[in-house]
Design goal:
This protein is an alpha+beta fold and about 725 residues long. It contains twelve helices and 38 strands. The longest helix has 23 residues. The chain binds alpha-D-galactopyranose. Alpha-D-galactopyranose binds next to loops.
Length: about 725
Amino acid sequence: MIILDEKNRVFTLHTHGTTYQMKADRHDVLVHTYYGPRVSGGDLSYLIQYADRGFSPNPSGAGRDRTYSLDTTPQEYSTCGVGDFRLPSLELELEDGSLLCDLRYTGHRLEKGKYSLPGLPAFFGGEEWETLAVTLSDAAAQVEVELLYGVLAERDLITRAARITNRGSRKLRLRQAASLCLDFHGGDRDHDLITFNGCHAMERCLDRSPLRPGIQSVGSVRGTSSHHHNPFVILCEKDAGEDHGLCIGAALLYSGNFQAAAERTQLENDRLTLGIHPFHFCWTLAPGEAFVTPEAAMVCSTRGFGEMSRQFHRAIREHLLRDPLAGRRHPVLINNWEATEFDFTADKLVEIAGAAAKLGIELFVMDDGWFGKRDDDYSSLGDWQVDQRKLPGGLTALVPRIRELGMQFGIWVEPEMVSQDSDLYRQHPDWALGAPGRSQTLGRSQLVLDFSRREVREHVYGELKKVLDSADIRYVKWDMNRSLTDVWSAALPPERQGEVYHRYVLGLYDMLEQLHRDYPNILIEGCSGGGGRFDAGMLYYTPQIWCSDNTDAIDRLRIQYGTSFCYPVATMGAHVSAVPNAQTGRTTPMETRGVVAMSGTFGYEMDLNKCTAAETDTAASQVAEYKKLWRLIGEGDYYRLTDPWRDGPFTAWEQVSPDRREALVSVVTHAARATPPFLALRLAGLDPDLRYRVEGREGSWPGDLLMNGGWPMPMPVGDYQAFQLHLYAE
Ligand code: GLA
């Protein structure tokens, strides 16, 4: 619910559990007054303290009042060069070379429903949303900034974006434009910053650090959101944990360069900004033109990380994913990549699919290596024609053979890339990103196509369309296997080269949107060397994303744990693969690999013909189990019961149905040890007043007992054992 106090110019955004407030103050500065647990409202600006602080300058309008300074006042969207020395939200470069920006309130507008951002991913929905737009202006620059707020009360979610319009008659340049700025004041909260970091094949490892004086930031300048840092961060109170304490999660719906920065200031008041990374960003706005920042989304939880995550999960599932199979089960899939890599024939693929079909697996995905002359990763990207040596008769011959097995067919593509050894590159070398007079840097021996250019996108899309129209294809894995370098576009003038990174992302979104429009029934899985572009922006176009190239069940505990802080289980691509694991060399039981992959978009990535009879039986029962429990797993409320980085000898998590009558608890023990201690696992999210049965056991137990007394852990025999408890109310 949005409350406007027109007289005092106070704007209050209430969600079910939280309140967010800003106010246009006596100098027309839009100050941030409050974000936290829901309060009754009123004008909360009494919380802001004013005092003369040395070297904190005063705007001319303050006259002789030295207590008023932009340097010490909490801002809603911070400015630059006129007295606030903290992290800026907006940096403008005018034709005269000045780099200043001073924003004052000029108006507001309230609407039912949710604003949209054409060309950009955004949360969507109907009457359950409200929109507030607050307009600020820089009179000297003749720039107008419209701050957009979407409120989804039930999910405690507030979205934000800024539309920056050049209202003057001269060109200007944006050097920085954040999506979100969040100021804290009063110094009453000692914050920790939580970020999700890693590398290829070990993504989204959680780091929690206290804020120190100065700026701490994570971000990406790789052109994608990256394996290395995720565009989702949390600011929380020192003592916040899974089920207690105040925390604020902030996600950027963006898949390119981003920066999340937190600053502890001189007065120990913290500021968080989130948006496109200023690195190599410079956007020209001609008179009348507007720039729209990507959307950011915040959830504030007063009951710890678990509740924050569950609110994000629900909001993402209900208002961000555009899933052709919404409300229905995604097919259990088998992918041939780890089984064959590039070395396959049609018969080999049919053999792999055949073994899978017998176990109830429903979708066969043909991965990399089917096009051009791609026998390794040195060639053929860009040549999206079937390799007749491997697949005689092309997809027209192969797909019916898969369909005969009762399976659907899916295909891998990497549309943003080109190999130097390809017909496409030989014809259009200038279509790859690269600056004049320099030889480009290679990544996985490939170059990046300039997706900021319409003609490049149109060509690639045309080629993809031919493939998709040539056979009955139900699934596409859209991959992207390198970081951007040599970012220079032959299609843009010198003064616009600072736009290429962002135009690349807009081009990508444009093409994904077209794909979504033309093929509304095709399920698209995102991928970037595993989870190198796992962000809320991509989820708008690809409702599932391959979580990591690391399929080792034990490493996956940590990767999926980190991923779960913002993103729902139903979006995480997770497969059972062969052992010893290709990435770590570790051997884990088939059961364990199944338990871990089941908390994701379940599938297999191996040649099941090579399994023992016992493993085949296990796989068959896993598939059956997943088909039975998919709704609970995918749509249930997710509880992290342990922290795989810190807590004891096992990792556990739980899904609980929305009516709390059913739950699935999954436990994976770490390496075995002699004389293990007696341990119990406390469950969560159950109804304390209901009694629960546990599948396969005699008896029943009250919910309050299971949550407080717990469930005794079996003694593991051997490394990396796993088990599940399926609970249902009597
Ligand atoms: C990336 C993907 C893998 C696989 C290979 C194919 O690494 O993450 O799943 O598709 O590319 O080259």
